[in-house]
Amino acid sequence: MALAFNRQATKRHDPMNPRKSNTLLIVMVIYALYTLVPLVWLLFSSTKTQAGLFSSFGLWFSDDFAFFDNLAATFSYRDGIFLRWLGNTLLYVVVGAGGATLLATMAGYGLAKYRFPGRRAVFAVVLGAVAVPGTALAVPTFLLFSELGLTNTPWAVIIPSLISPFGLYLIWVFATESVPTELLEAARIDGAGEFRTFFTISMRLLAPGIVTVALFTVVATWNNYFLPLIMLSDPDWYPLTVGLNQWSNQAIGAGSQPIYNLVIMGSLLTIIPIVIAFLLLQRFWQSGLTAGSVKQ
Amino acid sequence: MKHIPSAATRRALTALAAGTVAAIALAGCGAGAGGSDSTGDGSFDSIEAALETGGEITYWSWTPSAEAQVAAFEKAYPNVKVNLVNAGTNNEEYTKLQNAIKAGSGAPDVVQVEYYAFPQFALTDAFVDLSQYGFGDFEDDYTASTWNSVTDGDAIYGLPQDSGPMALFYNKTVFDAAGVAVPTTWDEYYEAAKAIHAADPNAYITNDIGDAGFATSMIWQAGGQPFATSGTDVTLDLQDEGSKKWADNWNRLVQEDLLAPYGSWSDEWFRGLGDGSLATLVIGAWMPGNLISGAPDGSGDWRVAPMPTYDGTAATAENGGGGQAVTKQSENAELAAGFLWWLNNSDESISTFLESGGFPSTTAELSSEEFLSDAPEYFGGQKINEVLAAAADDVVEGWNYLPYQVYANSIFGDTVGQSYQNGTDLNEGLTAWQDALAEYGDSQGFSVNK
Asked: Which of A169, A237, B46, B304 has an alpha carbon within 20 to 30 A of B416's alpha carbon?
């Protein structure tokens, strides 16, 4: 018994020949299926007509192959409102997530590298803000914005998106570790101003952290649903998430016009950019996460 | 392919709106009083003058016919510009409307509202009383039940657009295959439910996992009057005779698992309507267009019969449907009222509406030869409008919704829905719903059952 146990133990610790774990394999396969099946379903469904969706098995093709018809119809439906929504989403992502990344980077860096009174207070506020989910703030934000007359304008979506306490915290931790104070002192001695130091030296050192924060905020803004839902009443300013929901709701009630085939094609088109962004920036994301010592 | 506003989101949205209902109920007219000081001399002439003078108004609607109607209106009155906005379907729109009312700005001039939501806005003074423009003259143009839904005493808060007297839509092929006669009473309906499910375990008589709109309409048909409002006094009795009658009837189907376990308007539902696994729908008369567009595979199979009853005497209820109203935030209430009048009272607009598959609320259309003789192929050439128009005359009188029905419907699933899910007595669920509604009403400044 003891011998067998020992042998097994040695085997388990041999890094050149890792033991195969069936349990782990099964768990991973289940998880992979769990993650991929909806995407596969979406891919198959995007090839179907409205009628085909209801008369065929979800994970295989139906008789008609309507992928390109759906694609064309999605872009032409209601005078191409889908393109407008895509443009809105891009606007919110570029200005909102871009701004949030810039602000988080500057603030996190400032808090990490400068000593000034009130740093601890800021730290407490930021940590507290990380804990409050955005959804809980949507209602007060709405009332505030309607006082300012900003509801039903793009600003109502962009301004709240500019704030990313988590991004700030991440950059803060990251900057503390990866930007040596000696380097900043050297730059100062050489006569570089603080902004020049920040943009030419520190930003490069912070790049993995910045990409991580950018990914976080881009994904959050791209998927933002509840905030634009309550802030906007004019479909011309909807992002894709809220717009697709409106299409989906067309199937409900008297005079319903179900366009599930377009909802599905629209959903597919909506996730493609975010999947591409993830695949391209994955290595930054990983290194950023570990370098910042933050575990997700 | 679930509809994205999950139950949780819907609840959050409704809670957001709900907070504002209260504020308005308590503040009296506060928020809305801004716009419509220009209330004219109290005649229809001022409306016609406003239409000629022109101006710009905003109209919130999610009906498919709205676009064509607005285009036709702008052609008829070239000085008027109508900004048509789809601000969301039902609940979403109400939330936005409620928020805009609370905020004091941002509401449209004319807004689409379903009948069940009318009291919530009308009683909180969000809508212009149109009786001042002589809209009382239009009473005879509409069916009694729809007119009653948009009025409160002498006050007129809108004009009806569509209506939904309930009828029995059934898949004839399924009934023939199972050798079952089309039920005329609820007892026969229950027997048919068993026979159809026995003949094909995948087939169900209908689907229901707890739907507030359906349940309230069913209670309405059974003669229940669970909701009554007078000022801020609300009387709730979800255990009155009619409510119990429905619950006892429906209990049999719920507890014996004879109902398909999915909600209406889901993809399973559309699939079931097309492939024969859903044998009937007891639903509003606006359904035919939805079947034709949403379940093309069912073409030729479906027929329409009167709604089953408890004792064989024709009785039905309104299910869904709604109209349009003018908000108090409107800067040009006369023009808005003019548009509303054209929208729901002119032949041109109503025929556009009918072409889009809508079911009218106007008596002239409901009794017109052209309307009654329509025999769609989808329904095997049956003159379905004869059945549906007859249903409009059999709507049980005396029904009222709560002044916070939108909220009420949003918590139906948490209370009565539990009975559906656990297969327990629906009466218990109704009691739980009533308790929750009483508590909520009290917290919102109403006086419930006092």
From this structure: B304
